[in-house]
Structures are given as structure tokens and as C-alpha cells.
Amino acid sequence: MASYSDKVIDHYANPRNVGSFEKGEENVGTGIVGAPECGDVMKLQLKISDEGVVQDARFKTFGCGSAIASSSYVTELVKGKTVDEVEQIKNSIIVEELSLPPVKIHCSVLAEDAIKAAVKDWREHHEKKKDGSAAA
Amino acid sequence: MQSRIYMDNHATTPLDPRVLEAMLPYLRDHLGNAASRNHSFGWEAEEAVDRARETVGSFLGGKGKEIIWLSGATESDNLAIKGVVEFYKDKGNHVITTATEHKAVLDTCKALERKKLARVTYLPVDQQGRVSAEQVREAITDETILISVMLANNEIGTIQPIAEIGRVAKEKGIFFHCDATQGFAKISVHVDELGVDLLSASGHKIYGPKGVGFLWVRSRGPRVRLTAQMDGGGHERGMRSGTLNVPGIVGLAAAVEIARGEMAEEAVRTRGLRDRLHEKIVAELDDVYLNGHPTERLPGNLNLSFAYIEGESMLMGLNGSAHPNLPAIAVSSGSACTSATLEPSYVLKALGVGDELAHTSIRFGLGRFNTEEEVDYVAGRVIDEVKRLRDLSPLYEMAKEGIDLKNYFAGAQH
């Protein structure tokens, strides 16, 4: 652990969009990635409109300062984007924004995985909902 | 409150001002080489070094001439283990040590294994970090020439039953090396009571200077012989070539002199501060676990796992990175993110502490210059930071909802 970039410190000290959405909200996709044994777990929740636009995001992270900063940054990054757009987000943009050193790149990979897992979860709900309304 | 608080006294200790005073003349006026036999500059240096030998040797219950000065505990461990293995190679090649030794011992043993110079048994420790004399006895073979067990562990502070192991070693006629780096001058160390034949320690862990240490080698009953690992001018009776670090040696001896007078009282005071810190923390926080032994433990050591928050993120909240306007607190962690290898602490692993808790461990190292005011301040900051980070932790939230984390994350990708 050496020095952190100013942006990592800022996200660590003032994390954005911390928290959880109400359980069972239909338009929420939840991604939980990582493992406690590895020292990092991220929970990312995206609130997505029926049109597929990310309206809001929340996160909670167990991990080092860079992991916290990566997930905090992602919650800002995804807002207003369509699900197709957020699925295209690559970890490199997180690395660049936060100036992560090579040993912390895995934090950005985990954040990318969290986005994909959250969108996948939302799609599953959404498909079900669509099927349900079609049947009705 | 000052701008920085040092609570990492296992890593190194501040120089005691009295030690500095003792050293200054040897940095300023007495410039001689202790090996110069032909003038007063050399004589002064040699006299100082020999006085220091007597101080340290007698403090240990041994003799001054049994001290070999060298650069520190790492070199001392290397010389003890490699020196014995090489010298006694015709007698046997088996070494017994433990899984939680310092890397200076473990990697020395691994180097000997790689070169096929020794076969090494690494004894497992119990959940508190202790090895038993019985385990040592059972590991002994006809080929065993050396047992090496640390006095106290640098991460968890656990004190090993050295005297009991010493009796087994003596009964079996096997040399016994003790890496006493962390316990020396903190708890009582007497080489005959402990039954050790070689003992390693360092200056900078005892409020002395960095870059100086010693290996004590028993000269009689039994006499231990070594193969030197440093070739050159034949200093230290050929055991360690290289010009002696006279100011360092004088400083180490001054630190020992202070310990001789104050060690017992200091242990009580340090233990009091340590317990105060521990009590304050657990009074405010749940799911905090002590790593190591509850009582057989160095007075200044407190190693805690704060479940559900990762150690490096804790350090970042304490060490001044994130809060430049608050006093920076120096402690350390067993988390993978803080190690060069990106693996969680092998010591905690050896205790059977799961990786998920090893990542959350923080080591507090209290020492001579810590105050009650500092302890209270650090306790408050730790409590605040843990609460803040647990509010950020999905694991804390899940655990509070009653989710079994082990089950939930079983088979998760690392």
C-alpha cells in the first residue's frame, strides 16, 4: 500500500450513493461479486426504467480503498446511461479515472463485473415481468 | 494531540533519547575501528565494544565473549541456522522449526532445502499460535541437528513455551536456536533457564538503533560451533567478518542497560495500555476477534480482526491518507492488500484464522512511548472508522440480515 490518487481518497472519504434499495423493488437489478476470502465483495444495485435507462444506483463494498473508490465511481458513471451502454463499460475507464496502480486493477475488474451482474439480474426480472404482463 | 501517533512498535521502535546520548560520542569523537590494535582510537572502540558484550551477555545469563555482533536479527537467524547446518553436516541434516516463524527463519530454512543441505519440519501451531514441547519431541529423528523456535511472534505476540522445548532439546542433545527478536528486553530472557544454545536479537526492536544485532552462541555445556557465512577480515573470532558498527553496538548495549532496570515495570505499564485499548474497542463494537493467545502474549501486542471490513481500508482511514487534518495513526494489517505477496498473513493462516478474517486484521504494537491519551484517541478513531466502514460493507448488512456468508459465497470466484 503506497500512496493513493486524490480521486481514490475522495471517493473513499466521501463515497457516493452508499446504501441499498428496498428489497423486492421490481425495477432494481442487484449484482454481488467477489468473495470475503479474497478480501473484496461489491454489491451494486441499479434502478432501471422500463425503457432501460439507469435512473439511480447504490453500492456497498467490502474491500480496500481502491475497491471502495471503484464502486463509488461506478455509481456515478452509470446514471442516465442505457443498459446497453453500461454493459459496454470497461474496467479501463475506471483505472484511468482513479489512476489505479497495476496491483489495484483487479478492483476495477470487480466493479465491471458488478455492473454486468446487476444488469443481468435486472434483465431476468424484467423478462419475467414482461412475460407476466403478456400473459395477463 | 500531536500530528502522528506511532503504534507499530513490532515493526521498529523509536530510539530512546538515553540511547542516543550514549551513542553520540561514538558518532562524533571516538571514530576508531575496533580492529585497529595500534592506537588509542582503536583501543577506545574495542573497549566500548567489549563493555557492550559484557552488558548484553550478562543480561542474557551468558558471557560477553559468546556474543557475535552483526547487522540485525535477519543476519543473526541466517548465521545461526546456516552456520549450524553447515558445520554439523556430518552429524545430520534435519531441522525442526514452526510454521509461524519470521521469514528470516522460514526463508533461511527454505534456502537450505532448495540447496539440499537440510530437511526441515515446519511444526503446525494451535489456534492461539503455540507449539508444544511434545510436538517438538515427536518430530525429532536421528538426523535432527537443530531446533529453531521464536520466543514471541511478531504479528500476534504469542509467546512460545521455550523453556519446555529447551528441556527436550537438552535431553536429546540437539542444539536449540531461539529467534528472540520480539521478546528480548520486553520479557525475561535467561539462556540457561530457557535452555537455548543460540539466541538472535536486534537493536531497533528495543529502543536502540537500526542496523545492529547479535547472535549469542553457547560456548560451554555444550559448545556450539558454526561455519561463518561472511568471509573477510576475520572479525568476531572469524564468525562474522566486517568492521564493527561501534556506535550501533554501544546503542544496543545502552538499550539493554535501560531494559535491565525498567523492563518489569514497563511490561506492566504497556500491558495496561494494551488492555485499555482492547477493552475500549470491544465495549463499542461487536464481531471483533482477538488473534493469538489471550495471556501468553507480548505485553504490547494487540491483534484484532474486525469482521466485515478489510484491513487496508481501515489503515487508509487511520494513517492520514484519507483524513489529512486528523492525527495519522501508524498500525499494520495482515490483509493481503498490505503485503508484498498479495497473500493474507501466513501467521494467521497457520492459526486456522480464515482468509476472510485475516483480511480484516489490524496489529496494534504498543510501546515505551505510548500514552494513555494516545490509547484513548486511537480507540475512538478505530471505533468511528469501523462503524463507518461497516455502514459501507455489504457483508455486515448481510450478516445482520441473518445470511450465512460462508454458504452464500461458497464456490465464489476468487
Provide the fold topology:
The complex is a heterodimer of chains A (136) and B (414).
Chain A: H1 6-13, E1 28-35, E2 40-48, E3 54-62, H2 65-78, H3 83-87, H4 91-98, H5 105-135
Antiparallel strand pairs in A: 1-2, 2-3
Chain B: E1 4-6, H1 17-28, H2 40-59, E2 67-70, H3 73-87, E3 94-98, H4 103-114, E4 119-123, H5 133-139, E5 144-148, H6 162-172, E6 175-179, H7 191-194, E7 198-202, E8 213-217, H8 246-284, E9 288-290, E10 301-306, H9 311-318, E11 328-330, E12 332-333, H10 346-350, H11 355-358, E13 361-365, H12 372-391, H13 394-400, H14 405-408
Parallel strand pairs in B: 1-11, 3-4, 3-5, 5-6, 6-7
Antiparallel strand pairs in B: 2-8, 7-8, 9-10, 10-13, 12-13
Helix pairs in contact in B: 1-8, 2-8, 3-4, 5-6, 8-12, 9-12
Note down, in words, how this protein is organized.
The complex is a heterodimer of chains A (136) and B (414). Chain A contains five helices and three strands. Chain A is 49% helix and 19% strand. In chain A, a hairpin with a 5-residue loop joins strand 2 and strand 3. Chain A has helices at residues 6-13, 65-78, 83-87, 91-98, 105-135, and strands at 28-35, 40-48, 54-62. Chain A is an alpha+beta fold and 136 residues long. A three-stranded antiparallel sheet of chain A has the order 1-2-3. The model of chain A has no long low-confidence stretch (mean pLDDT 92). By secondary structure, chain B is an alpha/beta fold. Chain B folds into two domains: 4-10 and 263-413, Alpha-Beta Complex (Aspartate Aminotransferase, domain 1); 17-258, Type I PLP-dependent aspartate aminotransferase-like (Major domain) (Aspartate Aminotransferase, domain 2), CATH 3.40.640. In chain B, 41% of the residues lie in helices and 14% in strands. Chain B is built from 14 helices and 13 strands. Chain B has helices at 17-28, 40-59, 73-87, 103-114, 133-139, 162-172, 191-194, 246-284, 311-318, 346-350, 355-358, 372-391, 394-400, 405-408; strands at residues 4-6, 67-70, 94-98, 119-123, 144-148, 175-179, 198-202, 213-217, 288-290, 301-306, 328-330, 332-333, 361-365. Chain B has a seven-stranded mixed sheet, sandwiched between helices. A four-stranded antiparallel sheet of chain B has the order 9-10-13-12, covered by helices on one side. In chain B, helix 6 links the parallel strand 5 (144-148) and strand 6. The two termini of chain B are 42 Å apart. The model of chain B has no long low-confidence stretch (mean pLDDT 96). The chains are: A alpha+beta (136), B alpha/beta (414). The A-B interface holds A 1, 3-4, 9, 12-13, 15, 18, 20, 32-43, 60-65, 67-68, 103 and B 308-310, 312-313, 315-317, 321-323, 335-338, 342, 344, 354-356, 359, 391-397, 405, 409, 412-414.
